[in-house]
Specification:
Layout lengths: L3 H32 L7 H8 L3 H13 L3 E5 L5 E5 L1
Antiparallel strand pairs: 1-2
């Protein structure tokens, strides 16, 4: 016997999950861009300002860089800093 209500609920939640993650990514991307408005920042400083995990920042920053929204610079000390184009 199959519970139709549970099947429908399960199908709906599967559809909604990717959208929720997409919305969270967009929100995190916006937070990263806002953090880098005034000056170039390292991943650690962006993490402190936004509360986003450094690994997630690195991933999202690479995505934003590919889209042409962020640029990177490498300082003399070897730090990678992100800034808005």
């Amino acid at each position: 016997m199959v519970n139709v209500g549970e099947s429908i609920k399960s199908a709906i939640s599967e559809i909604q999950t990717p959208q929720g993650e997409d919305t969270a990514s967009k929100s995190d991307e916006q937070a990263i861009l806002k953090a880098c408005v005034d000056k170039p920042l390292t991943v650690a400083l962006i993490s402190v300002k936004t509360g986003i995990d450094p690994k997630r920042i690195k991933s999202l920053a690479e995505h934003l860089e590919a889209e042409g929204m962020l640029s990177t610079t490498i300082t003399e000390s070897g730090q990678i800093k992100y800034w808005i184009n």
